[in-house]
Design a protein that fits this description.
- It comes from Amycolatopsis bullii.
- Helices cover 47% and strands 0% of the residues.
- The chain has two domains: 1-37, no CATH class; 39-111, Orthogonal Bundle (Endonuclease III, domain 1), CATH 1.10.340.
- The radius of gyration is 17 Å and the shape is globular.
- The protein contains five helices and no strands.
- The termini are far apart.
- The chain is mostly helical and 111 residues long.
Amino acid sequence: MAKFGDADVERLMQDASIVRNRAKILAAIKNAQAIAALDTPLDELLWSFAPASHVRPRTMADVPAITDESKAMAKELKKRGFVFLGPTTCYALMQATGMVDDHVAGCFRAV
């Protein structure tokens, strides 16, 4: 994907099986290029922003949308050429990958 060009973008814009948003397609290509240019493995870079400790939220209202760590991750990724992301997206990544566990107290999934 990092080597996709204009013809690939146009092909993807015609693909009804994906979200056909030019900005998102271009961002995916740009982010693939940024990954290819990294001087460290992507997983190491991302996990370097995992918080040292995390307090389990008591209620859904206590679940943050952003944290200092997600702000730092977004800033570093943008510095390295990533686009179409911010601290909220980075925090969602942290939740989805298990870097933070935001299952509220009492949830059957809470560890």
